Amino acid sequence: MANFNELIQSDTPVLVDFYADWCQPCHMMAPILEDAASKLSGKAKIIKVNVDKNPKAAAKYSIRSIPTLLLFQDGDIKWRQAGVVPADAILSAVQQLEPAT
User: Fold this and answer.
1) Which domains does the chain have, with CATH numbers?
2) Mean of the pLDDT values across residues 47-73?
3) What's the rounded Cα separation, in Å, for the pair 28 and 95?
4) What pTM was estimated for this model as a whole?
């Protein structure tokens, strides 16, 4: 959990996928997250948190259904979505955090 807290404090957006091995929709998210990760290369980090192995983290962020995605920046939740989320929605959420040029 200490490492998790360090990761989400980053000014680089961190997308956290709360999942469980037995969850079929979570398995459906895996290729979507891989696609998003390839398109985000360097713009965001994506980490997975197994709710069965990390119940305190799930409780801390009120994870009531899985998969649930939380997008952190500087330790703050900037976006939250439960269920299977299309890659475009993930990319859009991250792009909203990018500084205007």
Assistant:
1) 9-95 (3.40.30.10)
2) 95
3) 23
4) 0.92
